[in-house]
Amino acid sequence: MTHVVGIADMKISNREEDLLITYALGSCLGVAAYDPVARIGALLHTMLPSSEMDPNKAMINPYMFVDTGVQSMLEELFKLGARRERLVIKVAGGACMNGKNGDFFQIGKRNFLMLREVLSRHGISLKSYDVGGNFPRTMALEVGSGRVMVKVWGVSKEL
Questions:
Q1: How far lies 97's CA from each of 25, 81, 102, 117, 146, in Å?
Q2: Residue 154 predicted with pLDDT over 80
Q3: How sure is the predictor about 96, in pLDDT bands with cuts at 50, 70 and 90?
Q4: What per-residue confidence (pLDDT) applies to 100?
Q5: In the CATH hierarchy, which fold is given to the domain comprising 2-158?
Q6: Catalytic residue set
Q7: DSSP for the chain?
Q8: Computed from CA positions of residues 123, 118, 20, 29, in that sequence, does the dihedral angle turn out positive or negative?
Q9: Where are the domains of the chain?
Q10: Cα–Cα distance between 91 and 128 in angstroms, integer?
Q11: pLDDT (average), residues 110-129
């Protein structure tokens, strides 16, 4: 079954037939996490780097922010039996959708930097990533295999 992950959303599954997919990753990050032993996967579509900019929104929807979104995703994975030392993390997005001269706030870049900081705090390494550029991406996680696919301009590749 296909589960669409919206903006500021996260889906988690331990059903091998499930596909988790998110569309239109611009400056947002798609964060796929997979435990190959427990066969549990999660896909997060997060928008902004730090919940400090609006703690009230972060309490209502932690997935809006990289720091609280990744933390919440990890907690949900651990509840279902995933183990920190087995997690495979792959990321896509973090683009500059306004061109180099129009990216004053550098949201995509800041999202990626925050992600690396949060993962480091948890002792989790990043397996692979496809970030930057100035184009949108679609990202999908196959729960049964742990494969992560990224599609840009109609061309898919495994991450």
A1: 10, 37, 8, 23, 29
A2: yes
A3: confident
A4: 56
A5: 60s Ribosomal Protein L30; Chain: A; (3.30.1330)
A6: 28
A7: -EEEE-TTEEEEE--TT-EEEEEEESSSEEEEEEETTTTEEEEEEE-BS-GGG-HHHHHH-GGGBHHHHHHHHHHHHHHTT--GGG-EEEEEE---TT-GGG-SS-HHHHHHHHHHHHHHHTT--EEEEEE-SSS-EEEEEETTT--EEEEETTEEEE-
A8: negative
A9: 2-158
A10: 7
A11: 95
Phi-psi category of residue 133: left, alpha or beta, with phi > 0 → left and psi -120 to 50 → alpha: left
Q: Encode pLDDT of 17-28 as tens digits.
A: 999 999 999 999
The answer to whether residues 128 and 19 touch, using CB atoms and an 8 Å cutoff, is no
Residue in the block written with tokens 């599609």: 151
Tokens 């742990």 -> residue = 146
Model confidence at 101: pLDDT above 90? no
